[in-house]
Amino acid sequence: MSTNDWALILGASSGFGEAAAIELAAAGMNIFGVHLDRRETLGHVAEVEEQIRAEGREAVFFNGNAADESKRASVINAISERLKPRQEKVRVLLHSLAFGALKPLTGEGALTQKQIDMTTNVMGHSLIYWARDLISAGLMGEGGRIFAMTSEGSTRVLPNYGAVAAAKVVLESHIRQLAVELAPFKVTANAILAGVTDTPALRKIPGHEKLLEAATARNPQGRLTTAQDVAQAIRVLAQPGSAWITGNTIRVDGGEGIVG
What we know:
41% of the residues lie in helices and 16% in strands. The chain has 260 residues and is α/β, with parallel strands linked by helices. It has one domain (5-253): Rossmann fold, CATH 3.40.50. Helix 1 packs parallel to helix 2 (42-54), helix 1 crosses helix 7 (227-237) and helix 4 (113-136) runs parallel beside helix 5 (162-181). The longest helix has 24 residues, at 113-136. The protein is globular, with a radius of gyration of 18 Å.
């Protein structure tokens, strides 16, 4: 990776996004981060930025809703103003947005249409808008890598996970389509399916304690997947030699998904 390369991490302040930002910085990449944090968690965001700079890399973070059209336009414009005079590019786009409604689809307390639409937009459709805006602005080209975090919920049923599960299905479908449409630009697109990982997003799922216990018991490695495991895999897949890997949902789970 070149020290002129940048990664754009959507959801950069925690979980997979945070780990990937730090790992890619260690690999020599500068980091743009988009995150949504209130005042009480901004101290941690500053710590993430400091860890990136400690690797000798640049860190430019934007606090706001990554699924908002005007915010996206503002960030793309800021990136363009920074990179184009320097003739630098965004090499990696990581979609790691974990904001959705966790309620049943039917019955008491069921999801509203607005909540379902919001979840699908944030965790699914927003990938398309960021990818195509980067490409159309000339900020990502040959050698570009697009990654999106999916989950086992795209094929399995969990309590109160219906809207998020649907969003993950949408996300994986978009990855396949982007892989084909962006092939002429020599840009790859892959979904990353991590094993059960103890992240802030997972802890919002009702009954997450049972998920963690069950995943630890069935994982042949005898432990949970960590955000660092996933970040290291993304680092490998971001290398130039991975250009023929595209359109996939890639498991990063220590074998968890192949056992009962």
